[in-house]
């Protein structure tokens, strides 16, 4: 979310819907971190094992 306007827009949307700070904190910090911990290794593994016409990145 760095260098993207997603975070400020999300904060404005949460304020518009009158979300409390108890909800805003996890929505802004915890959920994206948890998703990156789950999705990151899956994407990395698939990327490392990808084979294209130019060859493969890491072939075991």
In short:
With 60 residues, the chain is mostly helical. It has one domain (6-56). Helices cover 65% and strands 7% of the residues.
What are the salient characteristics of this protein?
mainly alpha, 2 helices, 2 strands, elongated, 60 residues, two-stranded antiparallel sheet
Report on the architecture of this protein.
This protein has 60 residues and is mainly alpha-helical. The chain has one domain (6-56). 65% of the residues lie in helices and 7% in strands. It contains two helices and two strands; from the N terminus they run ααββ. The chain has a two-stranded antiparallel sheet. β1 (51-52) and β2 (55-56) form a beta hairpin.
Which value, in Å, is the CA radius of gyration?
18 Å
Termini separation comes to 33 Å
Helix-strand category: mainly alpha
* DSSP helix fraction: 55-70%
Task: Tally the beta strands.
Answer: 2
State the strand order across the main sheet: 1-2
Mean pLDDT: 80
Strand content: 5-15%
Provide the succession of SSEs.
Answer: HHEE
Large-scale geometry: elongated
Count the domains. 1
Biggest beta-sheet profile: 2 strands, antiparallel
Number of helices: 2
Are there runs of 5+ residues with pLDDT below 50, and where? none
Question: What is this structure's SSE topology?
Answer:
Blueprint: H1 6-16, H2 21-48, E1 51-52, E2 55-56
Antiparallel strand pairs: 1-2
């Amino acid at each position: 979310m760095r260098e993207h306007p997603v975070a400020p827009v999300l904060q404005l949307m949460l304020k518009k819907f009158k979300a409390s700070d108890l909800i805003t904190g996890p929505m802004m910090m915890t959920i994206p971190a948890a998703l990156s911990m789950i999705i990151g290794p899956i994407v990395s593994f698939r990327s490392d094992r990808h084979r294209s016409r130019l060859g493969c990145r890491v072939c075991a």
